[in-house]
Write a structure and sequence with these properties.
The chain is 42% helix and 27% strand. It is an alpha+beta fold.
């Protein structure tokens, strides 16, 4: 009976120790100030494996007293860790008090108080557009140098027309001869001239005959 009593007491102590180890503890909580781009963030991580529901409150401290309550959230931790975030435009080297309440198990502050980094959050700078040429600019440069401009193509197409306008015109005699040879009235004029010659010859012949007859009489 004595042996059984000792064994039972040992088992009870082991179970109590195991329960205490699994219970929520302020050591399961941690706080950190970080940046999300240009915005400040205070994050609290709960690694309580028992999953005890806890209320986390964050306060801005000034001269050892609460100056402002930043916010309050409820969290249920896990062995892997559960994180909650508070948006806060914190200043460099500012102090925040993080208080945790978990039923009747925990009612304490995370110690030491949270101190923010010495550098404030800033927006990430994007590279200037003028630093590197755009694809459209680099692609358009060879096109303008390789292909002739429209004015050049127009001037080259009108060059033969100007040469033909400056060419000398054919001589006047050549054009008159061409027009005379191509005139359809040439045969008519030649016929009239021949008829006039015949008429003239006949008139001379008859005139000489009449003169001879008068001389005989």
């Amino acid at each position: 009976m004595r042996v059984l009593g000792i064994a039972s007491a040992s088992a009870a102590l082991a179970l109590s120790a195991a329960g205490t180890a699994l219970a929520c503890n302020i050591a399961d909580f941690s706080a950190e100030a970080s940046c999300d781009g240009a915005n400040g963030v205070i994050t609290v991580t709960d690694t309580d494996a028992s999953g005890q529901s806890a209320v986390v409150s964050v306060f801005l401290e000034s001269n050892g007293a609460d100056a402002k309550k930043i916010g309050e959230q409820t969290v249920k931790g896990s062995k892997a860790g559960v994180t909650i975030s508070f948006s806060e435009d914190w200043k460099p080297n500012a102090t925040y008090r993080v208080h945790v309440t978990a039923g009747k198990i925990v009612d304490k502050d995370i110690t030491p108080n949270l101190t923010t980094p010495s550098k404030a959050c800033t927006a990430e700078e994007s590279p200037s557009p003028s630093a590197s040429p755009s694809p459209s600019d680099s692609a358009s440069a060879p096109a303008s140098s390789d292909s002739p401009s429209p004015s050049a193509s127009d001037s080259s197409s009108t060059a033969p027309a100007e040469a033909s306008d400056n060419a000398p015109s054919p001589a006047a005699g050549t054009s008159n001869l061409a027009e005379t040879g191509a005139n359809s009235n040439t045969g008519l004029i030649a016929g009239i001239a021949a008829a006039l010659v015949v008429v003239g010859g006949g008139a001379v012949f008859f005139g000489m005959r009449r003169r001879g007859a008068k001389s005989d009489s």
